[in-house]
């Protein structure tokens, strides 16, 4: 098996690939929260939620601040900028391809059938 170093973009998409991690980010959009507050509504153990949080932290999407015994998390949307740019670049590519196909079909529609 080949091991490779994950890029920030890889880590972002890997973190966003899981619905639990997306739910955690959604919860943190409005305000910071303690880890226990985030874990409470989720149908899994605190240990499982912590593993999801570590993935989000590794991707830079979540920041942790320890205050006494409490761990507070906040969202950091900065890594999403690169992910959004990547999607935007490919959206433009596919839009150009779709436009070229539409032009090609339109041209052949007006030419009629070939004898």
TrEMBL record:
Coiled coil (residue ranges): none
PROSITE patterns xref list: HTH_ARSR_2
Domain HTH arsR-type: 1-95
Top-rank taxon: Bacteria
NCBIfam families: HTH_metalloreg (NF033788)
Protein name, as recorded: ArsR/SmtB family transcription factor
Species this chain originates from: Streptacidiphilus cavernicola
């Amino acid at each position: 098996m080949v091991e490779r170093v994950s890029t920030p973009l890889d880590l972002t998409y890997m973190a966003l690939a899981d619905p639990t991690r997306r739910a955690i980010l959604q919860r943190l959009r409005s305000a910071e929260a303690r880890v226990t507050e985030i874990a409470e509504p989720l149908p899994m153990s605190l240990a499982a939620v912590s593993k999801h949080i570590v993935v989000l932290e590794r991707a830079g999407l979540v920041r942790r601040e320890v205050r006494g015994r409490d761990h507070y998390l906040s969202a950091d949307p900065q890594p999403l900028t690169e992910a959004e740019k990547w999607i935007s670049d490919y959206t433009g590519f596919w839009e150009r391809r779709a436009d070229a196909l539409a032009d090609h079909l339109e041209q052949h529609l007006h030419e009629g059938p070939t004898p």
